Amino acid sequence: MNILVRGTNWIGDAIMTIPAVRRVRAIFPDAKIVLQTRGWAEDIFRDSGLFDEIVSIDSAFQQIRMLRPYRFDLAILFPNSFESALVARLGGAKNIFGYSSDHRSLLLTHAVPIPEWKAFRHEVYYYLELITAVEKYYFHAVRPEEDIEPRLAVSEKRRHAARQFLRARGLDDMRPLIVIAPGSTNSNAKRWTPASFARLNDRLHAELGANVVIMGSKGDADVSRVVVGSSDHPPLDLTG
Fold first, then answer.
1. Cα(115)–Cα(23) distance, rounded to whole angstroms?
2. What residues contact residue 168 under an 8 Å CB cut-off, 6+ apart?
């Protein structure tokens, strides 16, 4: 069985899909599962053991042409976009599961209603609910929820490379390491103030003796610079 999982468009959302993807692997242990995602997510999922293959998202036409040879038996669409449904349909997926949003229900073979509780429960459950619909269709039953923590495996090779990377920049790996991400690419309303992050950084340094690292996408560079410039003990800035 060939399964396509269409990943989300943002890093935070991708992390929230991990328990749902883990359940897909659990209920289809022998399937070939392909993740279609933005290029940045390849590093996130590379060592996860959840996918047999990862393909990058390009233009809609190129996506369709790329997907057709796989002859997917099942496509699971985590994004709510019209385009993701159109690509799965024209890409030849036999069964297509996704939420009935963005006027795309006719493109889905199984349009799942958006849960009434969506605004009140953690996003992890929103993605799990989609897999529940898949499981009911194929197995007429649903296994109890077990591990819903969004954890990912990281190989020792990559851990070693990270340690070497930080040592080369003067960080003492005997001290606690704390990462902060002050930016938010798609919504300034989600951001805590840079001044607050700067004060937090100084407290982490003073009270815990921690190494503090700032991370984020290239679009977060400006806010990271403000945090660094406002800190008494500037953190290591790895933004971008």
1. 19
2. none
What letter represents residue 44's amino acid?
I
Q: Provide the residue type at 60 as one letter.
A: A
pLDDT tens, residue order, the chain (240 aa) = 999 999 998 888 899 999 999 999 999 999 999 999 987 777 788 888 889 999 988 788 889 999 999 999 999 999 999 999 999 999 999 999 999 998 999 999 999 999 999 999 999 999 999 999 999 999 998 877 777 888 887 889 989 999 999 999 999 989 999 999 998 766 677 789 999 999 999 999 999 999 999 998 888 899 999 999 999 999 999 998
d(CA 201, CA 203): 5
Alpha-carbon distance 173 to 163, whole Å?
7
Strands 32-37 and 110-112: unpaired
DSSP code per residue over 56-100: E---HHHHHHHHGGG--SEEEE-S--HHHHHHHHHTT-SEEEEES
Cβ contact 192:159 at 8 Å: no
